[in-house]
Design a protein that fits this description.
Blueprint: H1 2-23, H2 31-38, E1 45-54, E2 57-67, H3 71-84, E3 87-93, E4 96-108, E5 111-118, E6 125-132, H4 136-144
Antiparallel strand pairs: 1-2, 2-6, 3-4, 4-5, 5-6
Length: about 140
């Protein structure tokens, strides 16, 4: 009986620890502040999935935020993460960056992190954080094919 109780406590602690570790997946990135600050704001929609499959790709974390009239507030966070990016892909239209992705420093163990963004209408758009064993080519296929 004591053994079963101890087993349950250890299992509960393992689940709580695993949740805490994945909850901070984008920790250390400036985009984390965007999700914290605007994730529940009026005119925004946030979606978060863990251990999901999207178009055949296994993702550890998928987090997206669509927003209206916030681009000037979000730009500084994207620019700060761009400075730390290992790989940068941007789409420029009429002299303005309208979409792209930044491959951030990996977590290790083959787990890569990406910040994706799109703001074709000026002050409205979307930001996405993806974490998984995806290559930059996989991200391009996921987004553009």
């Amino acid at each position: 009986m004591k053994h079963d109780c101890l087993k349950r406590i250890m299992l509960t602690l393992a689940v709580v620890l695993a949740s805490a570790l994945t909850a901070t997946a984008q920790h250390g990135l400036n985009i984390d502040n965007v999700f914290d600050k605007y994730g529940h704001a009026k005119g925004c929609k946030m979606v978060e999935m863990r251990d999901a499959t999207l178009r055949g790709y296994k993702l550890k974390v998928y987090k997206s935020l669509t927003y209206k009239k916030l681009q000037p507030s979000i730009d500084p966070y994207l620019k700060a993460d761009k400075k730390k990016a290992k790989k940068i892909r941007e789409v420029v239209e009429n002299g303005r960056v309208v979409s792209g992705y930044y491959m951030m420093p990996p977590l290790g163990g083959g787990v890569n992190r990406y910040v994706l963004f799109s703001n074709p209408r000026g002050d409205s758009g979307a930001v996405i954080y993806i974490e998984g064993e995806l290559s930059p080519d996989d991200i391009m296929k996921l987004c553009y094919y």
